[in-house]
Write a structure and sequence with these properties.
This protein is α/β, with parallel strands linked by helices. It is built from 11 helices and 11 strands.
Length: 317
C-alpha cells in the first residue's frame, strides 16, 4: 500500500511539473541583419505565435560568416524547442560547399521544421549602368573587364552564388563586394557604390518600381507573376537559375511533438489570406510541407548546389 501511495504521489508530482510547450520565452535566431526576408518573416511568424501561445517569441539577429555564426548557436543549443533558427539557402545548402571548415553539419545537427517560403529573385542594376537587359549587361561587362561590381548579402548567400554563377556562364569579369546582409548591400547599390545585385524580390522590387534601381531580369527558371513583363536571366543564359529560400530549424534531437506543433502553426499562418496576398505582391511562394518533406528538400539542395559551387570556383575562406 505504501509503495502504491508513493508511486501515486510521484506521478502526481511529475504531472504538476510537466508544463505544456511553450512555457517560457522562445528565441528565434536570424543569422542575418534586420530588414532582410529571413528577418521579416521570422518577426511576422513570431508575432502571430506569440499571441496565440501567450509566450514571447524573441527574434535575435546573429550575423557573420554567411549565416554560419547564428546557425551554429542553434546547432549547439539544448534540443528543447526554445532555440530555433531561420535558416536559408546559404546556411543549410550552399555554405557546406563554400566553406572549407563548417562549425556544424546542416543535416545531422538540425531538426527541420518547415520550409517557410521560396523567394523569387531579381537582377537589378544601378541606373548609371548602361544596360537595359541581360545581353546589354554582358556586352558592357566584356567590353569593360573588372569595371562591374556585384554586391551580395555576404559570403555563401544566394546573392553571392548567383553573381559567381553569372560570371562563369556569361564570361564576364566582375568584382564581388560582400556585405553583412541585404540591407547594407542594397543601401550601397542605391548610392551607386556598386553596379548590380542579385536579390530576393521583396527586398528590391519597391526600389525598382520607384526608379531608384533598374530591374533587368528575374533569376528563377520562369517569369514571375509579380513582374510578368520581365524576362529571366535564363532567356539570355540558358540554364541559369537561382532560387532563395528560408526555413525554420531546431537543434537535432528536439522532440517531434514540438517540431510538429511549430510545423502545423506555420503552415496555417503562411496560408492565411493576408500572408498569401503579401507573398504574391512580393514575388514569394509557399507550399504546405511536413518536416520530412523539408528535410528531403534540404538534402536535395545540398546535392544540387555542390557541383555548381565547385564549377564556379567560389570560396568563402
Amino acid at each position: 500500500m505504501k509503495v502504491f501511495v508513493l508511486s501515486l504521489l510521484l506521478a502526481l508530482s511529475s504531472g504538476l511539473h510537466a508544463q505544456p510547450y511553450p512555457s517560457k520565452p522562445i528565441k528565434v535566431i536570424v543569422p542575418f541583419p534586420a530588414g532582410g526576408i529571413a528577418d521579416l518573416y521570422a518577426r511576422l511568424i513570431g508575432g502571430r505565435l506569440s499571441e496565440s501561445w501567450k509566450q514571447p517569441i524573441v527574434v535575435e539577429n546573429r550575423t557573420g560568416a554567411g549565416g554560419n555564426i547564428g546557425a551554429d548557436v542553434v546547432a549547439k543549443s539544448a534540443p528543447d524547442g526554445y532555440s530555433l533558427v531561420m535558416g536559408s539557402f546559404g546556411t543549410h545548402a550552399v555554405n557546406v560547399s563554400l566553406f572549407s571548415r563548417m562549425p556544424y553539419d546542416p543535416v545531422k545537427d538540425f531538426a527541420p521544421i518547415v520550409l517557410v517560403l521560396e523567394a523569387e529573385g531579381l537582377l537589378v542594376v544601378h541606373p548609371s549602368v548602361p544596360a537595359q537587359n541581360v545581353l546589354d549587361l554582358i556586352a558592357y561587362g566584356r567590353a569593360h573587364p573588372g569595371r562591374l561590381t556585384f554586391a551580395s548579402a555576404g559570403m555563401g548567400t544566394a546573392s553571392h552564388l548567383a553573381g559567381e554563377l553569372f560570371k562563369t556562364m556569361a564570361l564576364v569579369e566582375m568584382t564581388h563586394v560582400p556585405y553583412k546582409g541585404n540591407v547594407p548591400a542594397i543601401t550601397d547599390l542605391l548610392a551607386g557604390q556598386t553596379s548590380l545585385l542579385f536579390a530576393t524580390m521583396p527586398t528590391v522590387l519597391p526600389h525598382a518600381k520607384a526608379g531608384k534601381l533598374r530591374a533587368i531580369a528575374t533569376i528563377g527558371a520562369k517569369r514571375s507573376a509579380a513582374t510578368p513583363g520581365l524576362p529571366t536571366v535564363a532567356e539570355a543564359l540558358p540554364g541559369f537559375e537561382v532560387n532563395n529560400w528560408i526555413g525554420l530549424f531546431a537543434p537535432a534531437g528536439t522532440p517531434q511533438d514540438i517540431v510538429r506543433k511549430w510545423n502545423g502553426e506555420v503552415n496555417r499562418f503562411m496560408q492565411s489570406p493576408e500572408i498569401k496576398q503579401r507573398m504574391l505582391n512580393e514575388g514569394a511562394a509557399f507550399t504546405a510541407n511536413t518536416p520530412e518533406q523539408f528535410g528531403e528538400f534540404v538534402s536535395s539542395e545540398i546535392a544540387k548546389w555542390a557541383p555548381v559551387v565547385k564549377a564556379s570556383g567560389a570560396r568563402a575562406d
